[in-house]
Design a protein that fits this description.
With 332 residues, this protein is α/β, with parallel strands linked by helices. It has 10 helices and 17 strands.
Length: 332
């Protein structure tokens, strides 16, 4: 099969045309991959910012495909089913975290496209527990569905961490996750304040088109105090910056897997019960809830399409901010 391999940090991904087609083992399914979203986490992987990846590994963890092999013991999925495969790919099921609904914190967890082979390929194998039926194809065609599986899921978990009473929410870094979760916040009756790189008029116009009540640079102060701020930009300096924009009791939620160091800041900026919360991975509950709410919220994803062999180009375009929304590789 055709596949794209990550072999070492700082090296371009390498395409091969004769990679072995994997087989589904017990509890697994194999899918013929149709498309796979491109994520900033993939950039962190190729830049060597994520420790101890499987080498070589096939990146990609926003996989949309159709089941073409069912392993022993799998009963809830069948041949031809359209499923999505996200970042969290396997958990032990027995540790204190798995037993308490915090499977996203499982110490033995494995991750699609990082410690498990992912979707930059024609076929992928997944634990059937972590493969999710997708909304109807006429509502979310394959290309549109791919960004839901990380940008959407992590965005949704970050929104959950903001708290039930958060109505004015600032979003720092207006990329794939921001453009999806903004639509969910507005569906729930909230207001979104969009923060971009200073001077990025294109991103600010994109944010306004999605219904943000205010947009500005990440170095600006919004006109109203925020209930919460979600940081999708992996820039530690934004933590103290966003704290200053919060009301008393507000929360900063860091939505990335990697972030540059957070500089020191006065305790006064944290005082009055403001807090900082990180987001790690996702749970099956997150996936089930978000994939249910996305069509109700009439979420629309904006995608830029690349062929599988242009994976390196897609990653570089993401790095340079050359598109709005999300990039998606066509693999099938």
């Amino acid at each position: 099969m055709k596949a794209v391999l990550f072999e070492a940090a700082g090296k371009p991904l390498r395409q091969v045309d004769d990679h072995p087609v994997p087989d589904a083992g017990p509890g697994q399914i194999r899918v013929r991959v149709q498309v796979c979203g491109v994520c900033r986490t993939d950039l962190h992987l190729v830049d060597g910012e994520l420790p101890d990846p499987k080498l070589p590994v096939i990146p990609g963890h926003q996989i949309v495909g159709r089941v073409d092999q069912v392993g022993e013991g799998v009963t809830h999925l069948g041949m031809g089913d359209r499923v999505g495969i996200p970042w969290l790919g396997w958990t032990c099921g027995t540790c204190r975290y798995c037993q308490s609904g915090q499977e996203n914190l499982c110490p033995e967890a494995k991750f699609t496209g990082y410690t498990l082979d992912g979707g930059y390929a024609e076929y992928a194998v997944a634990d059937a527990r972590y493969a999710f039926p997708l909304p109807p194809e006429d509502r979310f065609p394959d290309l549109s569905a791919a960004p839901l599986l990380c940008a959407g899921l992590i965005g949704y978990r970050a929104l959950r961490m903001c708290g039930e009473d958060a109505r004015r929410i600032g979003i720092y870094g207006f990329g794939a996750a921001a453009h999806i979760i903004t639509q969910v916040i507005r569906y729930r009756g909230g207001e979104v304040y969009g923060f971009t790189r200073p001077g990025d008029d294109t991103a600010q116009a994109f944010a306004k088109r999605l219904g943000c009540v205010w947009t500005g640079g990440s170095d600006e102060t919004p006109p109203d105090e925020l209930d919460a701020a979600i940081l999708f930009a992996p820039v530690g300096a934004l933590v103290p910056q966003s704290l200053k924009a919060l009301r008393r009791g507000g929360r900063v939620v860091c939505g990335g897997i990697h972030m540059s160091d957070i500089p020191s800041f006065p305790y006064r900026d944290l005082w009055e019960e403001r807090s900082i919360q990180s987001v790690a991975n996702l749970t099956r509950r997150d996936a089930e809830e978000f994939l249910d709410i996305a069509p109700k919220a009439d979420v629309k994803t904006e995608v830029t399409e690349y062929p599988l062999e242009k994976a390196n180009d897609a990653l570089e375009a993401l790095r340079q901010g050359e598109f709005t929304g999300a990039a998606v590789l066509v693999c099938g």
